[in-house]
Design brief:
By secondary structure, the chain is α+β, with helices and mostly antiparallel strands. Helix content is 21%, strand content 21%. The protein is built from nine helices and twelve strands. The longest helix is centred in the first third of the chain and has 18 residues, at 16-33. Bound molecules: the ligand Nc1nc2c(c(=O)[nH]1)N[C@H]1C(S)=C(S)[C@@H](COP(=O)(O)O)O[C@H]1N2 and molybdenum atom (MO).
């Protein structure tokens, strides 16, 4: 498939945990041999990324359904039942329905993607996700001509989610993308981290990952995906449209009204490590800048 991202080097036919270990061995081996696959800029970009530890990725989280503290999700998200799980895919699709998570997993090609992850609060991590391209899931449902956007919704189950008792956001958490953003080969539905099933606090059993956008676009524990013909409402934009736009592309030149977005604090970087410059589109400019050609990014922030 032409749009498949070619820098994934993990073997597909081994268990995910082995795949992660093998990927590193393969990278090392191929690099030594000077293999041509490593000469693509995307492959080099991915190779250079050093992932955060499992501990960092799974203990410092935002998942407001479980509370607003960074350690609340790790403490409380275990209460969320994630099996059985279905994802309703509906709206402007040829094959709407309730898709069982296990059936989705049987049909999708699982890959590893090491991505930068930049929160709008100006901290960042590097996460070795496993998952599949959202485009493949949408193709499975059959996108209709009139569709222009994709809307996403998180599980809402108050008895398992202590955070939703407070009206911090208008629950359920909802997000959205333009269809071309959703179909971009970098856009992932993550089902794992470090080759293990994704922990509840990170959005089990499947969550969106859009690496060139602020973290809040990467909606967790998705139960509904709707193809629409207009821009869908998104939780943080509804809560405060002056501070959080629909696009929310990582952009060091467009500050948040209350803080600079020019630099970021690396999680796990240590108390005295300097802040790191934030990269345009979080370092994915070559891949995604064309999606926003002609748009004023300070207006469409
Ligand atoms: N449903 C839901 N999805 C969510 C959030 C949330 O509160 N609820 N927080 C967002 C924010 S602000 C960030 S930075 C990321 C954090 O993902 P992580 O905990 O896996 O690092 O999840 C995003 N997805
Ligand atoms: Mo965030």
């Amino acid at each position: 498939m032409a749009r498949r991202w070619t820098s994934d080097l993990s073997p597909r036919d081994v268990t995910p945990e082995r795949a992660f270990l093998n990927r590193r061995q393969i990278l090392g081996g191929l690099a030594a041999a000077g293999a041509v696959t490593l000469s693509s800029p995307r492959a080099r970009a991915q190779e250079a990324l050093e992932p955060n530890s499992w501990e960092e990725i799974t203990s410092y989280n935002n998942f407001y359904e479980f509370g607003t503290g960074k350690d609340d999700p790790a403490r409380y998200a275990g209460q969320m039942a994630t099996s059985p799980w279905t994802v309703a895919i509906n709206g402007l699709v040829d094959r709407p329905g309730e898709y069982a998570f296990k059936d989705i997993m049987a049909r999708m090609e699982i890959e590893e993607r090491i991505y930068r992850f930049r929160c709008v609060e100006a901290w960042s991590m590097v996460v070795p996700w496993t998952g599949f391209e959202l485009a493949d899931l949408l193709d499975m449902a059959g996108i209709q001509e009139r569709a222009t956007h994709v809307a996403f919704e998180t599980l809402l189950r108050p008895e398992e989610m202590p955070g939703v008792a407070r009206p911090v956001l208008d629950w359920p958490y909802v997000e959205g993308l333009r269809l071309d953003e959703a179909m971009h080969p970098l856009t992932l539905m993550a089902t794992g981290i470090y080759g293990r099933d994704i922990p509840n606090q990170n959005g089990a059993p499947l969550r969106l990952v859009v690496p060139w956008k602020y973290g809040f676009k990467s909606i967790k524990s998705v139960v509904r995906i709707t193809l629409t013909d207009s821009e869908p409402p998104t939780s943080w934009n509804v809560a405060n449209s002056r501070e959080y736009g629909f696009y929310s592309n990582v952009n060091p030149d467009v500050d948040h009204p209350r803080w600079s977005q020019a630099t970021e604090r690396e999680i796990g970087g240590g108390l005295f490590s300097p802040r790191k410059p934030t990269l345009m589109f979080n370092g994915y400019e070559d891949e995604v800048a064309s999606l926003y050609e002609g748009m004023d990014l300070s207006v469409h922030f």
